[in-house]
Amino acid sequence: MASTAACFWLIDANGTLVYLSPEMLTWLGVEGDVPPSIATAITPDPVMWTGTAANRGHLTRRLHIPATEVKGNAGKHLATEPRVVTAHFVQLAPLLDAPHANDASAGATLILGCLGQYLPDNSVPWSDWFGEQGVREAAKLDEEIAKFRAQQKRHATMLLAGTSPTSRRFRSRVELACRIRCHVGLTGLGGCGAGEIASLIHHASTSAEPLVCLDASLMDSELLEVYASPVIAELRESSNATGTLCLDRFDEMPTDGQARLIEWVETWPERLRLIGIRYDDTSGTKTSLAEPLEILMSTFPIEIPTLASRSADLELIASGLTRTARLSRETNELIRTYPWPGQWEELTAAIRFAAEMATGDRIGREHLPLAIRSYRVSTSTSGQVSTRDNEITIGPPQPTPRDFKLESLDATLSEYEASLIERAMEAADGNKAEAARRLGISRSRLLRKLSGDT
């Protein structure tokens, strides 16, 4: 608490008044010696400080100040009304040179009493607590948090974009979850953007509610108690508080952590919400969810579709992620045909990489990561059925010696020779003499081959 008044006094360990500030004397209406009745009223009983370690040397008490007589005009005596005030007492360390203290109280433990107009901590300006530098740092942190949330919301919005039937179904499902507050179960492949969808659902449905995101695979009962405390502590302290736990890799959660979670849900069935995320392709150790948690995850299940199933929407999604840059036709074609095994996280990382590599406002194929720009669509007939030696094979047939055929021997040899020269030049760091030595030919012959002369 913060005080705006200067009414304070000092009391020694024996309960004797040592000093009263002038403001306190004025407030009491006392001139000269303090009447015994007032001294007794503003002095806490020393027994209060015995065994009060839990108070950490602080006491708050209601004081009843008796009426006092003060001199008025023309020497008349006026009586003040009795008053009831709140006073705060703080036990100080021994003061060897205590001002205004007599010899008996010097070096003894003192008690500071004060009263006045007290303000709640949240009513005190930040600058009074942290100073101007602290306020600037807090404002900068708030700005960074707001920027991160805005970017996360924009990414989640782009993940929902698209006009294909798959995208429309997915988007309508998420929009419905954003309008109600209930348990949500998200399922998809690794990197599908489930965390961003969970954050979007939470802030759209209950923006003022605290949210804690945890890796459930690491949460045994003890760790869960610690890391979920920002939400659980509020639920325990206030009967009106609500909170949300977002549990990534929910199906890998240890059984004792699940038991503690079930206990919380049963204690606060309407106030604690769970958003669980499960992945279909992870290699983590699966621990089947307990039946109560499985039921909660089926309350509002949402399956996040793969990017490959939304290929018609990828051009729109990628264009929205780039914001200012424009994708070339070749880039759009590659984005539509690439399978995106890393799902949403791979797509966003690729677009971010391409935007950093591009020097202008156009993103070409050459700006994409190597693994993506070198991708080529297979032309093999994967659905072909072949029969050999009474065996039926579904897929491309296995080659046999009779299947051997080259379009051109000279072209094949030239390509192979060029690849060997490239490898030798790379191994020799561009030194032609060293590359020729590694190839077992003369330098002049290597120069002719590099220039295109046979």
From TrEMBL:
Residues 382-402 are annotated as: Disordered. Residues 160-356 form the Sigma-54 factor interaction domain. Transmembrane segments: none annotated. Gene3D superfamilies: 1.10.8.60, Homeodomain-like, P-loop containing nucleotide triphosphate hydrolases. Keywords: ATP-binding, Nucleotide-binding. SUPFAM superfamilies: Homeodomain-like, P-loop containing nucleoside triphosphate hydrolases. PANTHER family: C4-DICARBOXYLATE TRANSPORT TRANSCRIPTIONAL REGULATORY PROTEIN DCTD (PTHR32071:SF57), TRANSCRIPTIONAL REGULATORY PROTEIN (PTHR32071). This is Fis family transcriptional regulator. It comes from Aporhodopirellula aestuarii.
